[in-house]
């Protein structure tokens, strides 16, 4: 099946996709803030600019979109320029792994959540994130 829009329109659409302050990230941030959890968003001083971070407790949380991070369940590669997209998403996955390894090696607490988890059951996923944060805070304060 061919693309339903021209190459120029598709290019502009793809260029308009943001890497921070996405709807998904904003919804998660607002809900965690409403629950009293204080954090930083996209901290430039941290490797990979985690979506959510709490330096005091060495917590980083990444909210990975299914397309850009190559979710095996939902990632659908565009039909046009397929080799480009295969390479692009593979590089993203390799970078994600390198960043995760960095935090693990440096004794940080890292959590990666998929976009589909948040879309399928937002409240349950928020509670998982909250539990991760509280358990880490409790572990680090003893």
- Our estimate of the beta-strand percent is 5-15%
Q: How many separate structural domains?
A: 1
Shape: globular
Radius of gyration: 17 Å
Oligomer state of the chains in this structure: single chain
- End-to-end separation: 58 Å
Q: Helix coverage percent of residues?
A: 40-55%
The strand count comes to: 3
- What would CATH call the class? Alpha Beta
Helices, by number, come to 5
> Which series of helices and strands comes N to C?
HHEEHEHH
**Could you give a short account of the major beta sheet?**
3 strands, mixed
Task: Note down, in words, how this protein is organized.
This protein is mainly alpha-helical. It has one domain: VSR Endonuclease (Endonuclease, Chain A, 3-Layer(aba) Sandwich), CATH 3.40.960.10. Helices cover 50% and strands 11% of the residues. The chain contains five helices and three strands. The protein has helices at 7-15, 23-34, 82-105, 115-120, 122-141; strands at residues 52-54, 59-64, 109-114. The protein has a three-stranded mixed β-sheet with strand order 1-2-3, sandwiched between helices. The termini are far apart. The relative contact order is 0.15.
Compact description:
The protein is mainly α and 142 residues long. The protein has a single domain, classed as Endonuclease, Chain A, CATH 3.40.960.10. It is built from 5 helices and 3 strands; from the N terminus they run H-H-E-E-H-E-H-H.
Name some characteristics of this structure.
142 residues; mainly alpha; Endonuclease, Chain A; 50% helix; 11% strand; globular
């Amino acid at each position: 099946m061919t693309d339903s829009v021209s190459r120029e329109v598709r290019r502009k659409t793809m260029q308009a996709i943001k890497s921070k302050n996405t709807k998904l990230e904003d919804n998660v941030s607002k809900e965690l803030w409403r629950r009293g959890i204080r954090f930083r968003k996209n901290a430039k001083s941290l490797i990979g600019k985690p979506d959510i971070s709490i330096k005091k407790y060495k917590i980083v949380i990444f909210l990975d979109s299914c397309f850009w991070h190559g979710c095996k369940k939902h990632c659908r590669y565009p039909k046009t320029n397929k080799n480009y997209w295969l390479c692009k998403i593979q590089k993203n996955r390799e970078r994600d792994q390198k960043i995760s390894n960095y935090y693990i090696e440096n004794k940080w607490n890292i959590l990666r959540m998929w976009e589909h988890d948040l879309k399928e059951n937002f409240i349950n996923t928020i509670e998982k994130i909250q539990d991760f944060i509280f358990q880490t805070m409790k572990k680090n304060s003893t």
